[in-house]
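=== Structural record ===
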Amino acid sequence: MKIRSHGIASDLLVMRGLSEVDHRPNRIILRTPSEPNFWFGNAVIFFDPPVDPQAQIGQFRADFPDATHVMLLWDIPDMKQGPGHEELRRAGFTIDESDVLTLAGPITRNNPPPDVSLRRIDTDDEWRAVAKLQIEIGLEGGQDTTGYATFVKNRFTNRRRQVEDGFGAWFGAFDGDHLVADLGIFHDASTARYQSVETRASHRRRGICSALVSAAHDWAAARSPDLKFVIVADTDSAAGRIYRRCGFHLTETNLAAYNPSYDERTAAIA
């Protein structure tokens, strides 16, 4: 079955080389054996409405019998939140609403400030700096300190492997030798998807993020000129507004629901 959502399709794209994608008549089972605690990499993607919390949580449990989390996605562009989502929310799930943005025409080009240089991430030290920056920003944003650093280091071990296998590239912005922002981009023959765009708080609002978006675009376009460029951001976020200024526009919204430690014995779902 053809995937309808640009967001879901590009989610699968950026997991190439890491994940197992199991197509079933009513769903996709996405497994990432090397990252069992990566919720979005270990998920069930349902093709059709309605949202049926009890049945869909049960299906996730059947597909992932050893998982402590539950991660549900729907391949339904512009799905509206309804009673099923509210039922999940009452049972302790977070409902994630994201904007899927695609580039409309040429990118609005941005250059970095004079004191900042951009380059592809390559060396051991640079990859360690990327993981360190991502950890710092995640913790500043409220991520749980328990296990988060281990999770991110594992994620970027795999990201580096994907880059070295030729699936994409990672870019960094440096103030001298100090990494202040980074992002990744992955592509196939038709689509390019940005990943993990982060800027250190001390260097925000200087156009660095926009410059990185431009640099990654140019690298991917040189490899495959006819790419559709996709980026996903939380709905109504500051990041989304930056990408719109780069020339991206809203294509669809996507909904997902996750609970990191769902326990049927105490849940509110009947």
Observations:
- The radius of gyration is 19 Å.
- The helical segments are 6-13, 53-63, 83-90, 124-140, 148-164, 208-223, 238-245.
